[in-house]
Amino acid sequence: MYSLENINGVCVYKDTMLGIELRLPEENCAGMVQTRQLPAIDEKSAIEKAFSEPVSGKTLHEIAREKGAKTACVLISDATRGIPTAPMAKAAVDELVKGGVELKNITFFVAIGVHRPATEDEMKCALGELYGKVECVNHTPFDKDNLIYLGDSTNGTPVTVNRRAYECDIHVQIGKVEPHEFAGFSGGRKSVLPGISSEETIRVNHRPERILDPNAAIGKLEGNPVSDDMIEAAELFGIDFGVNCILNNEMKIAAVFTGSLVECHSAAVKYVRNYLGVGIDKPDVIVTCPGQPLDIDFYQSAKALIGMTEILDGDIVTLLTCGCAEGVNSPDMLRAFASGSTLPEIERWTTEHYEIQMDHVLLLTKIYRKGAKVVLSCPNVSDDEARTMLMEPVRDPQKALGRAMALTGKDCPRVLFYPRPQTGLPYLK
């Protein structure tokens, strides 16, 4: 999907997903780095083993049988997460049926949070051979008639979740674990909050003072107020069995962990930490992209920048390339950026008028505060939208690279290619 080769003294970078090719003299090229690749595994045998040998607790069919469960909900992620859900969904359903739950009483809930609803094609992809055999519905974060209040978290978040999912006898979550911009890591408890929580619950959990808390950071769980809240919400909801996978750079399953909520997620996080560190020598320019599935829109694509928060500063110019077929796809994000002409004005207005999808505004301002410059090459984000988000638009990728190099003010700037940085934990050597 991404390659870099030297052809007669010219370095050629190719991104086959976006269909772009960038060229620069070899003296300017600092190489390419990526999150370390993990080999794909034999999905069938690995998933079977994970379900038969949970990290902790009993198997899913044992839990279902002991509870005398007649109905089951399975929480799955939306298309922006790019999880190959189908084989894990099949294993979960087999276990539930073995435990006494009839197929007709198993419902899959797409844990969209406040993202757009999943399409029928996306549901079909997620369920695979199960499509049409089990019911699959989108969560409804604004439908008060289908929400139920479970109590407040220690931090004062009112935990309100999908009533229909909650009222099922047994609860299963399927997700993936990777670095997350303010929850530390994705997966596990996030299937409940934000996954099937009300808009109010998500908004309170994602509120500015929590997102800007120093402990609410990529790769950090201990003392993270956002993550702590999520765990409490998932415990109030009652996740009986967790399924968390790790994906490699090709979005193939590299590992699967199952078991009780916290222990299963912790095992996946430990595994992830062992291979995610990406050490780099500081360049003058970083060329990056979010890759699939985040490339669907700019709200998601911004995670490529946010993933480099620790290394970006005024000495590095970033060129972000993305497709964003659905555009920015976040009016709230644009509205917040348009609220002022300076960073303090934008931050103050955003904090005072906060809505959920303004979270990335605050996270991007962390980078802008350090003087970081961003050139954006994206066909589906307008020039005005890019400038509103404090980025310099240059549609042509090759010209955008030239502009990024010129902004360094150096005669021979060093350019590093770093696709999909949000999948790792980058640090300067």
List the helices and strands and how they pair.
Blueprint: E1 2-7, E2 10-15, E3 20-25, E4 29-32, H1 43-52, H2 60-67, E5 72-76, H3 86-98, E6 106-110, H4 120-127, E7 135-138, E8 147-152, E9 158-162, H5 163-166, E10 170-176, E11 179-180, E12 184-185, H6 199-205, H7 208-211, H8 225-237, E13 241-247, E14 253-259, H9 261-276, E15 277-280, E16 285-288, H10 298-301, H11 303-306, E17 317-321, H12 331-337, H13 343-352, H14 359-368, E18 373-377, H15 383-388, E19 392-393, H16 397-407, E20 415-417, E21 425-428
Parallel strand pairs: 4-20, 5-6, 5-10, 6-7, 10-13, 15-21, 16-17, 16-20, 17-18, 18-19
Antiparallel strand pairs: 1-2, 2-3, 8-9, 11-12, 13-14
Helix pairs in contact: 1-3, 2-3
Q: Mind explaining what this structure looks like?
A:
With 429 residues, the protein is an alpha/beta fold. Helices cover 31% and strands 23% of the residues. The chain has 16 helices and 21 strands. It has helices at residues 43-52, 60-67, 86-98, 120-127, 163-166, 199-205, 208-211, 225-237, 261-276, 298-301, 303-306, 331-337, 343-352, 359-368, 383-388, 397-407; strands spanning 2-7, 10-15, 20-25, 29-32, 72-76, 106-110, 135-138, 147-152, 158-162, 170-176, 179-180, 184-185, 241-247, 253-259, 277-280, 285-288, 317-321, 373-377, 392-393, 415-417, 425-428. The strands form 6 sheets. The protein has a 6-stranded parallel β-sheet. Helix 2 crosses helix 3. The longest helix has 16 residues, at 261-276.
